[in-house]
Amino acid sequence: MSNPEIVDSSFTAVINAPLAAIDLPAWAFTLPDREYQGCSPAHVAAGYTTGPDGKRMSINVEVIGGSLMVQHYVERLGEKDHLILESVSDVFTPNGRTTINVLWELTVRALDDGRCEFTNHVRSTATDALLDLLDRQGIPFEVFRTQRQPMSIAHNQGETPLFAASIERAALRGQADEPIAARAVA
């Protein structure tokens, strides 16, 4: 079994800001710890750094389904309206530490001049380390996936409108910082 899918979930929310004011990478790579915590009761901490190759990284810590996760999201695509981050996330379970692959994709598209649709898409797949841990415990992958999916999907569904609100605040703050003449041209 090569990288079997654990969950693939996608939810949308409206952002009340113009598309031109939104910058997903700027938001993700400067997200204050407290702001991240406000986007879900499961969020513990957030920070950002760069990897050895110089690529930007967002470090997120959260608890999903009773398991602490440390996500090391590396930027794969960083456009203002489309951000793809990939992580080999550490997962601390009651039965030991393992890893899960997570692909996090954020997009925005204009609905009209002042509103956008935000999509929060999360896909996770098993690593060999996770499959080994499950095998040592005698837990079939399908049982693990069946138990994990509802928690992961509920987490994504809950954080999506709160992420949208956070992105909206950042976009509107950015607009407020922009000189009036520049806003008139845009």
Share of helix, binned: 25-40%
- What's the alpha carbon Rg, rounded to whole Å? 18 Å
The appropriate CATH architecture of one domain is 2-Layer Sandwich
Mean pLDDT: 93
Largest sheet: 7 strands, antiparallel
The CATH class label of one domain is Alpha Beta
H-E string: EHHEEEEEEHHH
| Percentage of β-strand residues | 35-45%
| Residue runs with pLDDT of under 50 for 5 or more positions | 179-186
CATH topology of one domain: Alpha-D-Glucose-1,6-Bisphosphate, Chain A, domain 4
Cα distance spanning the termini: 51 Å
The secondary structure category is alpha+beta
β-strand number: 7
Strand numbers in spatial order across the main sheet: 1-7-6-5-4-3-2
**What gross morphology would you assign?**
elongated
- What's the total helix number? 5
Short description:
With about 190 residues, the chain is of the alpha+beta class.
What does this molecule look like?
This protein is an alpha+beta fold. It has a domain at 5-26 and 75-175: Alpha-D-Glucose-1,6-Bisphosphate, Chain A, domain 4 (2-Layer Sandwich). The protein has 5 helices and 7 strands. It has helices at 24-28, 33-37, 128-137, 141-177, 180-185; strands at 5-15, 43-50, 56-64, 67-79, 82-93, 96-112, 115-126. A 7-stranded antiparallel sheet has the order 1-7-6-5-4-3-2, with helices on both faces. A hairpin with a 5-residue loop joins strand 2 (43-50) and strand 3 (56-64). The longest helix has 37 residues, at 141-177. The protein is elongated and about 55 Å long. The N and C termini lie far apart (51 Å). The model is unreliable at 179-186 (pLDDT under 50).
